[in-house]
Each structure stands twice: as structure tokens, then as C-alpha cells.
């Protein structure tokens, strides 16, 4: 404790002596993030995968769903032109993997946006209004938290058909709870700050205050938790697709690919390995980035 | 025979921004039963000095020099060996009673464990002694309060419990780090008196670390002033207030409101506290000192005895007077 | 403490009720029915079936009847099977699910906490890094991927355990499913413990404890462990939820006759009764576990009891 104040004074002093320019919080955070080797490498890897997923399918000569009748169940090779091999229907695995990655990412992004949108609004409103409304709203969140949400998602998928858009929304609806809790916590502390008081004193309406003052200052934690949520959502989508409740034919996702691969694993192992490696790399990379962001914005001795 | 003798005592911290010299070449002797106050701003090294002696420095801290207590150099002991000394012969009371106690353990547990570990008492014997001590520190109805959790006690109560914990094993040396800073003004005086009385009763030497000269006046016979990790003045309490020798001490006294001075006479000390990673070449205080000369800028002055006072300055304020002594 | 437990118990009942209601209406309001199967049935047959299963009564009546039945433990008939009611089938599957679920939870807790404490004590040294890697693997690889990998390594290459099936329920058969189920949670718990322990070890009250000279062992076990466990216990609530849903996959892959398999089949076949019943049972289990977690948390943090 003592050492921390000591360090802060020292650091403040050192920089006062060297270069009296002001450094914003974000600049500090970005510097710290760039020092994190794992995070930087991950950013490149994930960036590459994202690029590959969205541009790749147009570069690969094969389509993700057209069978190549002359090349059924072919092992990966450069000679045949099927770098990742083909499946039982002769579909090129590389194309399918890239396409599947694209779908998985699209679902994750959309679901994250949905969950962030709902969560931030809900949490900010609850935190700002406070009092009984806050209590009731958070009670609702507590109750929802206790439910096995995934099962409801499965229920919904079963009932309303396996619609990809529904999938986005359903998963987003799953993840907003944590975001709401965090945002509410942050709002509670933010609303005591002077600039909020000033805004209130100048007569701004509560909703405007929430939108103009509180939400922009939440960006830090929101970005971090969004970054940490994306891999979870990809995992959930894969999980659902694996069970058969997620993305449906002819579309494919990493989960579906792994499911197919696992079933015929002993004969055509590459069908499992390639999508698996891509999935794991994606998840691991996102995890490091999320962790890196969190450490960058809130450094503690690890 | 000194109770605790610090010789050429240095504390360094290894940080990403560089090496911090928290304490540099300190020499200090504390006598049994003495009442000593250590004064300084935050960053002066006053707390670190004693954390180092107790083996409680942060992981990136190293000590050099000697800290002789009871014939042993505490700095050379392992953690396990230190455990036999701390809590028993040397105890420490920390700044914030709110966080000093473990929130998930009852105070009974936190009080009796010392007695059980250090004196081998049975739980029943330990309870009896602990209750006695609680009464002594002025906690009303100790039996009922004994089974409570820290958060169920008020701030003042908690500090009394902490004091009780520190005195349970009748230590030879008690170090109190800003004992009243976190308390209400109304209780500060009570707590200080408690410290003084109990320490006197048990014959415990009391070291009070503080930045508050009012506390100093209430609880010390001897005052050591620290600045930039060094002792700059070491004198009796009356002398410090009437006749400070070091310019910093004088400036410190001038910067606080005093009953015997006109209101307009408060003067904050100009400049900034020293950067402990890049200490100035000469005296640590020279950048803020009105009397600084070239000699002050080049070499740090040693702590030398000038009569009844030790002072580290080339131009102590009472030079003429001391020269005559 | 008892009062707190009772209070929590009372608040869980509305939660259960909400879940049941939600599930019921979601299912009923959905387009299509349980008999929209492969072969279209004649209207007369449909009418009889509807009457037999009470599907022709007004929705709210069905709801109240259902609620009453649930109170008595009767989860209704299964549309898929005539011989066994939903309750029967669920009770058959329950022991399997509970065995692997509970075992996985306990193992995750034990392994996770131990790993986390070691990581905190040897921060940034070899043991910490070594375990960090295993933890990463546990965190990142989803269970449906971990399963075939472990099946391959331990079931086929090393041939030390059977690849699937319940067998006689002995350890070799349970080892893989429990490991797959427990691993991601062990990883998370380990991370939580490590982080929390490090924070606790840096706190003021630990400094006080150290200054009392009571020794490293007592300091860690008596002073540090309880407060450090709080985030872990908080996590156990949602963990129970994830474990139960994870068991669905694990039961599928390893062919275990638990509730998860029943749920998936029922969901795919739109067997309303079964789906509803499974959801209610899962809900009940989760709520129970959450209750226990809350009580454990109150034991760890005395400040909570005051509320």
C-alpha cells in the first residue's frame, strides 16, 4: 500500500522532471497493451484469421458447398489443390473452414453487439436511477442469471426453427446479464462524480445525461468485457452447432465442422483437426487480447 | 545497551522505473522504554524503515546494513526466524484500523492466536488474557464484544483492538505507524494517551511514526526527523519545538497552524519532495532550502552530533549556539 | 445464519415458478405441435390424441393443471413413450447425471483451488508457468473438442480407459467424462483463486498477520484462504449452470444414459412434456446448488449475513 503511493509520487515526479506533457488514460493503456507480447502476437494472429475468413473464400478456387466429384475423401495435399483435404462429399475443407470461420465470427460479433447494447443500456439506467428501480432491475438480472439460459436458447431454437438471426439474438440475450451488472456497478460510481452533478445541476434530463456523460465514460470496462465475451460466444455457438441446434445446412460454422469431423474422425482425421486448430487459435488469441486489454486498463502486479 | 540499533541501514526497491532509494545509510539507536517519534512527509522513508526491520517489505525491496535487536541482526534472519521475534518482542500497529483486521475472523481468534503461538497458552488461558487486555485498552463489555467480527465494531474500537493485539505478548518495542491518522479527531487524543500509558506500564519502547507535529508533542520524548530517506535531525521533543536545528524541521514547524503564532505566519515549504530514484547529488533538501550553499549541492551532509542534537546539515540554524556547547 | 438460509430459500421459490411458467408458455405458444411428425395423422386421431393429453383445453387451464401436477412431483406423460412418464424417465437418468456432475464439480474445486494457491505462492516462477499452460488448455478448448482428443489419447493410443459408455459405472468408465466436464471449470477456478489469493496476500490484514509472527502456514490457511475463496464461491453458482449444460454434450459423446441425452432427444422430437420436465428438473438442481453457494458465501463473508 505504502509502496504504491511512493511509486505514484516517484513516477509523477520523474515525468514532471523529464517532460511535462499530460498523458491520457487511453495512451497509457495502449502503451501497456503493446508491451504485452502475448497480446500483440494474438492480435496479429486473430487479425489474420479475420482477414482470411472474410476475404479468403473468394481467393480459394473451391466453393464451400460444391462437391468435387473427382476428389472425395482426399487427404490434405498441395498436389490435389485441396490444401485442407475434402470431406465425404468432396467438399473442399479449406473453403469450408474459411467460410465456417466467417459465420462463427459474424455470429459472435452480432451477438456481442446485441449483448453490449442491451447490457449497457439496462445497466446504465439501473445504476443511474438507483433506489427501488435499481433493486428490482438487478433482482431480475439475478433471477435470469440463475436460469440455465442455454437451455432456453435451445428451446427457442427448437421452436422457432433454426434461424441464424435468431441464433445471434438468442446468444446475445444470454450474455447481456454480465455486461449489465458491470455497467451498473460502474454507473453507480460514475454518477457521484462532479461532471455528472454539474450536468444535473444545469437541468439536463436524466436520459440525456446517461447517454452523453455516463455511457462514454464506460467505454473502458465495456470494451474489455466485450473482448472477453467474444470467445465465449464463439464457444457457445460452436457448442450449439455441435449439438445440432445452431447453424444449419447449407451454412456451416466451426462448431458444425468439428461435429462432422468428430463423427468420422478415425477415418478422415483432418476433417476434425483443421477446424479444431482454427477454433482453438481464435479462442486463445481472443483470450490473450481480452486479458491484455484488462491488464492494460487496470494494471495490477500479476 | 540499545534495544534496537540500526547501523548504515539502507533500503532499496527494484522498480521498472529504476532503483528507488527509500532509506540511505541510516544510523539510529533506540533505548529500552524510550518514547520516540519519527517525523517526515510521505516518501521520507519513515514507514519503510520499520517495515524493513520487521521483514515486511514488498518483494522487490532489499535491505543492507544492520539492525541489531537483542543481540541478533534482524536483517539476516529468515522469515521463520523472524516469526519468533515479531508479534512477541517487536510488534507494529498499522495505519488504518479498518483494514488492519481480518474481516472474516472474529476478533477473539485474532487476539488469541498470538498467545497460543508465542506463549503456548491453551485456548482458555489465551481467552482470559485477551479479555483482560481488552479491558485494559478501554473496551467496555469485552466479553460480549469478544465474539464479534471487525466490521461490527466502530473505528475507535477497532484501533483499541489492534493496540490490544500489539501489546498482548508484552513486547519490548512497539512501532505505531500513523496510529491516529485514520481516526476521528475526537478520539485521537484518547488513543494517544492509551498508547503512552500502556507502553509505560509494560516498559515497552514506543516508536510513533507520524507526519503530525501535534501527535509528536503528545507522545514523544525524543524526535527524529527524516527527509529523502535520511535522518536530518534527532533531538529531544522540547528542543525540536523551541529550537529546531535543521532548516527542514523549522520549515515543517512553520507550515502548520500553531496556537502561539499569528494566523498569517503559516508558510508552506516551496518545491517538491525529492525523487527517490534520482536523488539530488548533495543534500536532499537543498532545492527547497533557503540557506543552501555550494557545499550543500555537492555532498550530502553526514548526521553529526552537535551537543544534545544530531543534525545533518552544513548550516544548522542554531549553529552559533551549538558551536558554543 | 439459519435465518439467512431460510430467507434465501424463500426467494428461490419465485425463481423456480418463473422458470416453469416461462418454459411452459414458450413451448405451448410455439408453432407446431408434438405430433407434427413425419407422417401426417388424420384429424380424428389428432382429436383423440389431443383429448388424451389434455391439449384441447384452454391454455390457462392446462397451465394450472400442470402447476398442480408439478407440485405433486408428476411431470406428466411423455409424448414419446407410453410406458414411462416424464418423471419416470427423468428419475432413471438422474443418478447418472448427478454422479458425473457432482464429481466434476468437486474435482474442479479441489484441483482448481490447489493449483491457484500454488500459482499465487510461486508467482511467476516455474510451477506458476507450468500450470499456466495446462490452465490455458483447459480454458480454451471447448468440451466437445476436448472429448474426442482425450478419447484418442487415453482411449485409443494409450488404451487405459474405455472410449465411452457407462459400463458398470466404475472409475475407468467415468474418468474421461468427468475430466472433460471438470477441466474448463478447474481452469477458471484456478485463475480466480490465483488472482484472488495474490490480492489477499497483498492486503493490509495479511500484513498484520505476518507482523504477529504466527508463521506462514497459519497465515495462509487461517487468514488468507477464507477471504480468497470468495470469488471462487461466487463462481460456483454459474458454474453449476454451465456444468449441467456441459453434461448434455458429455453424455452425448460418451453415450451416458443421463438427463442430458433425454433432453436433446426430446428437444429434437418436440416432446413437450419431456422437454418441460427436463428443464424443470435442471432448474431445480441449479437453484438448489445456488442456494448452497449463497450459504457458503455467507459463511465466508460475515458482512453478508447482516443484510
Care to describe what's here?
The complex is a heterotrimer of chains A (about 300), B (about 325) and C (about 300). Chain A is mainly alpha-helical. In chain A, about 75% of the residues lie in helices and about 0% in strands. Chain A has eleven helices and no strands. In chain A, helix 3 (about 35-60) packs across helix 4. Chain B contains 13 helices and twelve strands. In chain B, helix 4 packs across helix 5, helix 5 (about 125-135) packs across helix 7 (about 155-165) and helix 7 (about 155-165) runs parallel beside helix 8. The longest helix of chain B is centred in the middle third of the chain and has 18 residues, at about 185-200. Chain C is flat, with a radius of gyration of 24 Å. Chain C has 13 helices and no strands. In chain C, helix 6 crosses helix 7 (about 170-200), helix 8 (about 205-210) packs antiparallel against helix 9 (about 215-230) and helix 10 packs across helix 11 (about 260-270). By secondary structure, chain C is an all-alpha fold. The interface of A and B includes residues 2, 5, 9 and 11 of A.
What string gives the helices and strands of chain C in order? HHHHHHHHHHHHH
- Give a count of the beta strands of chain A, DSSP E runs of length 2 or more: 0
- Regions of chain C with pLDDT < 50 over 5+ consecutive residues? none
Category by helix and strand content of chain C = mainly alpha
Q: Please state the oligomeric state of the protein chains shown.
A: heterotrimer
- Which band does the percent of strand residues of chain C land in? under 5%
Spell out the helices and strands of chain A N to C.
HHHHHHHHHHH
Helix percentage of chain A: over 70%
Instruction: Give the distance, in angstroms, between the N- and C-terminal Cα atoms of chain A.
Output: 16 Å
Q: Please state the structural category of chain A.
A: mainly alpha
Given the C-alpha coordinates, what overall shape of chain C results? flat
Amino acid at each position: 500500500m505504502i509502496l504504491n503511493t511512493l511509486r505514484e509520487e516517484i513516477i509523477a515526479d520523474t515525468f514532471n522532471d523529464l517532460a511535462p506533457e499530460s498523458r491520457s488514460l487511453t495512451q497509457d493503456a495502449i502503451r501497456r497493451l503493446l508491451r504485452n507480447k502475448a497480446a500483440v502476437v494474438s492480435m496479429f494472429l486473430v487479425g489474420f484469421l479475420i482477414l482470411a475468413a472474410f476475404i479468403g473464400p473468394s481467393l480459394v478456387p473451391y466453393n464451400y458447398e460444391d462437391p468435387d466429384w473427382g476428389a472425395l475423401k482426399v487427404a490434405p495435399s498441395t498436389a490435389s489443390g485441396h490444401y485442407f483435404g475434402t470431406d465425404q462429399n468432396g467438399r473442399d475443407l479449406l473453403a469450408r473452414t474459411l467460410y465456417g470461420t466467417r459465420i462463427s465470427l459474424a455470429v459472435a460479433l452480432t451477438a456481442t453487439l446485441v449483448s453490449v447494447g442491451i447490457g449497457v443500456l439496462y445497466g446504465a439506467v439501473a445504476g443511474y436511477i438507483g433506489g427501488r428501480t435499481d433493486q428490482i432491475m438487478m433482482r431480475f438480472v439475478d433471477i435470469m442469471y440463475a436460469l440455465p439460459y442455454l437451455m432456453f436458447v435451445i428451446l427457442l431454437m427448437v421452436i422457432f426453427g433454426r434461424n441464424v438471426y435468431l441464433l445471434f439474438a438468442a446468444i446475445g440475450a444470454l450474455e447481456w446479464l454480465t455486461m449489465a451488472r458491470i455497467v451498473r456497478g460502474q454507473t453507480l460510481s460514475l454518477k457521484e462524480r462532479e461532471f455528472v452533478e454539474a450536468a444535473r445541476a444545469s437541468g439536463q434530463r436524466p436520459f440525456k445525461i446517461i447517454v452523453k456523460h455516463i455511457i462514454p465514460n464506460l467505454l473502458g470496462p465495456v470494451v474489455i468485457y466485450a473482448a472477453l465475451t467474444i470467445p465465449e460466444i464463439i464457444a457457445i455457438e460452436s457448442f450449439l452447432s455441435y449439438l445440432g441446434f445452431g447453424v444449419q445446412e447449407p451454412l456451416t460454422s466451426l462448431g458444425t465442422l468439428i461435429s462432422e469431423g468428430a463423427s468420422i474422425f478415425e477415418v478422415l482425421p483432418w476433417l476434425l483437426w483443421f477446424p479444431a486448430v482454427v477454433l482453438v487459435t481464435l479462442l486463445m488469441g481472443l483470450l490473450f487480447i481480452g486479458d491484455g486489454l484488462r491488464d492494460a486498463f487496470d494494471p495490477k502486479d500479476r | 545497551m540499545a534495544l534496537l540499533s540500526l547501523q548504515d541501514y539502507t533500503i532499496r526497491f527494484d522498480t521498472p522505473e529504476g532503483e528507488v532509494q527509500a532509506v540511505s545509510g541510516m544510523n539510529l539507536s533506540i533505548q529500552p522504554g524510550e518514547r520516540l517519534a519519527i517525523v517526515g512527509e510521505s516518501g521520507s522513508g519513515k514507514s519503510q524503515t520499520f517495515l524493513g526491520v520487521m521483514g515486511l517489505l514488498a518483494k522487490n525491496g532489499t535491505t543492507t546494513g544492520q539492525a541489531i535487536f537483542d543481540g541478533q541482526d534482524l536483517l539476516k534472519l529468515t522469515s521463520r526466524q523472524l516469526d519468533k521475534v515479531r508479534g512477541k518482542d517487536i510488534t507494529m500497529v498499522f495505519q488504518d484500523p479498518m483494514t488492519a483486521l481480518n474481516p472474516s475472523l472474529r476478533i477473539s481468534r485474532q487476539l488469541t492466536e498470538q498467545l497460543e503461538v508465542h506463549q503456548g497458552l491453551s485456548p482458555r488461558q489465551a481467552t482470559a488474557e485477551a479479555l483482560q487486555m481488552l479491558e485494559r485498552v478501554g473496551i467496555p463489555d469485552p466479553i460480549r464484544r469478544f465474539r464479534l467480527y471487525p466490521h461490527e465494531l466502530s473505528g475507535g474500537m477497532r484501533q483499541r483492538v489492534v493496540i490490544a493485539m500489539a501489546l498482548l505478548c508484552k513486547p519490548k518495542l512497539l512501532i505505531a505507524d500513523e496510529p491516529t491518522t485514520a481516526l476521528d479527531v475526537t478520539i485521537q487524543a484518547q488513543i494517544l494517551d492509551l498508547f503512552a500509558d500502556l507502553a509505560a506500564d509494560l516498559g515497552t519502547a514506543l516508536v510513533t511514526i507520524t507526519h503530525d507535529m501535534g501527535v509528536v508533542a503528545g507522545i514523544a520524548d525524543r524526535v527524529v526527523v527524516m527527509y529523502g530517506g535520511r535522518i536530518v535531525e534527532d533531538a529531544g521533543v522540547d528542543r525540536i519545538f523551541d529550537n529546531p536545528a535543521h532548516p527542514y524541521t523549522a520549515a515543517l514547524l512553520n507550515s502548520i497552524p500553531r496556537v502561539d503564532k499569528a494566523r498569517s505566519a503559516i508558510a508552506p515549504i516551496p518545491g517538491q519532495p525529492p525523487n527517490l530514484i534520482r536523488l539530488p547529488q548533495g543534500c536532499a533538501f537543498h532545492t527547497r532550502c533557503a540557506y543552501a550553499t555550494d557545499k550543500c549541492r555537492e555532498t550530502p551532509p553526514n548526521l553529526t552530533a552537535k551537543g544534545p542534537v544530531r543534525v545533518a546539515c552544513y548550516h544548522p540554524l542554531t549553529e552559533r549556539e551549538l558551536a558554543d556547547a | 445464519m439459519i435465518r439467512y438460509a431460510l430467507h434465501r430459500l424463500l426467494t428461490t421459490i419465485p425463481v423456480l415458478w418463473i422458470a416453469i411458467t416461462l418454459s411452459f408458455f414458450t413451448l405451448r405458444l410455439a408453432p407446431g405441435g408434438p405430433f407434427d411428425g413425419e407422417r401426417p395423422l388424420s384429424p380424428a386421431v389428432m382429436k383423440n390424441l389431443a383429448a388424451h393429453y389434455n391439449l384441447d383445453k384452454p391454455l390457462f387451464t392446462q397451465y394450472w393443471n400442470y402447476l398442480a401436477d408439478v407440485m405433486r412431483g408428476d411431470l406428466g406423460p411423455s409424448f414419446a413413450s407410453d410406458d414411462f412418464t416424464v418423471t419416470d424417465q427423468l428419475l432413471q437418468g438422474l443418478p447418472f447425471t448427478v454422479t458425473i456432475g457432482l464429481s466434476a464439480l468437486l474435482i474442479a474445486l479441489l484441483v482448481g483451488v490447489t493449483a491457484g494457491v500454488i500459482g499465487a505462492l510461486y508467482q511467476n516462477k516455474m510451477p506458476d508457468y507450468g500450470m499456466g499452460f495446462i490452465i490455458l488448455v483447459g480454458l480454451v478448448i471447448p468440451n466437445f473438442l476436448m472429448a474426442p482428443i482425450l478419447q484418442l489419447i487415453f482411449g485409443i493410443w494409450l488404451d487405459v480407459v474405455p472410449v465411452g459408455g457407462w459400463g458398470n459405472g466404475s472409475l475407468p468408465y467415468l474418468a474421461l467424462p468427468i475430466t472433460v466436464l471438470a477441466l474448463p471449470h478447474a481452469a477458471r477456478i484456478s485463475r480466480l483463486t490465483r488472482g484472488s489469493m495474490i490480492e489477499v496476500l497483498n492486503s493490509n490484514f495479511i500484513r498484520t498477520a505476518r507482523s504477529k509472527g504466527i508463521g506462514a502456514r497459519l497465515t495462509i490457511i487461517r487468514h488468507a484462504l477464507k477471504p480468497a475463496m470468495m470469488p471462487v464461491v461466487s463462481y460456483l453458482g454459474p458454474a453449476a449452470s454451465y456444468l449441467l449444460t456441459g453434461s448434455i454434450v458429455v453424455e452425448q459423446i460418451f453415450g451416458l444414459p443421463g438427463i442430458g441425452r433425454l433432453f436433446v432427444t426430446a428437444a429434437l422430437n418436440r416432446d413437450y412434456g419431456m422437454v418441460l420436465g427436463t428443464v424443470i428438473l435442471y432448474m431445480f438442481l441449479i437453484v438448489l446448488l445456488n442456494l448452497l453457494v449463497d450459504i457458503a458465501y455467507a459463511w465466508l463473508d460475515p458482512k453478508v449475513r447482516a443484510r
